[in-house]
Amino acid sequence: MTTAPVVPSTATSGVGGLSGSAGRAAAAADRRRMMSNAEVHAFLREKKEEDQRTWHGAEFQQLLTVQFEALRYLARTPAAYQDAETLAAFNAAVAPFGLTRAERLMLLNLRPASAVELFSIVEEIGERLSEEQQEQLLEIVQSTLPFPSE
Q1: What is the Cα–Cα distance from 70 to 21, expressed in whole angstroms?
Q2: How many Cβ atoms from other residues are within 10 Å of residue 69's Cβ?
Q3: Rounded distance, CA 83 to CA 48, Å?
Q4: 91 near 104, Cβ under 8 Å?
Q5: Please, are residues 99 and 107 in contact by the beta-carbon 8 Å criterion?
Q6: What pLDDT sits at residue 138?
Q7: Contact predicate 8/32, CB 8 Å
Q8: pLDDT at residue 78, rounded to an integer
Q9: pLDDT for residue 46
Q10: Quick one: 99 exposed, middle or buried, by C-beta within 10 A (0-12, 13-18, 19+)?
């Protein structure tokens, strides 16, 4: 099962003017969050040109290679066709289903096409969602998350 990476942000100071250990804890919480494959793809695309201009030497070559391979992989997935508006529309459409953040993230990244796939993504789906709701959820995934190869 694919999960989104936890990526640190560029924030380095306390959040909201907090100082001391409370500020450090708040800053640490702010610096890490789960990202969808689409968000990782967008981030890597933005960083690609900047990094190629500023990163030189053998120590950065491996990092650039990993970045290139990740972009190449993500370009062949639905993440390449998702943008901020798509993600917002998807989240609004699935809000009534009471899914956790992790479940929504897996739906975005995996883009299930069958009830069997839903069972591996949504915990206790048989108890939480009726068969009709499961079908509705699959329809939302297919209609709001574009993937041109279909």
Answers
A1: 35
A2: 10
A3: 18
A4: yes
A5: yes
A6: 96
A7: yes
A8: 86
A9: 83
A10: buried
* Mean pLDDT estimate for the chain: 77
Could you give the maximum distance between any two Cα atoms of the chain, in Å? 56
Report whether 4 contacts 36 (CB < 8 A): yes
pLDDT at residue 52 in the model: 65
Amino acid at 107: L
Total-model pTM: 0.67
Q: DSSP secondary-structure letter at 148?
A: T
Tens of pLDDT, residue by residue over 21-53, are: 444 454 445 446 788 888 888 888 888 777 766
Q: Which residue has the tokens 């699935």?
A: 94
DSSP notation for 56-114: -SHHHHHHHHHHHHHHHHHTTSGGGG--HHHHHHHHHHHGGGT--HHHHHHHHHH---S
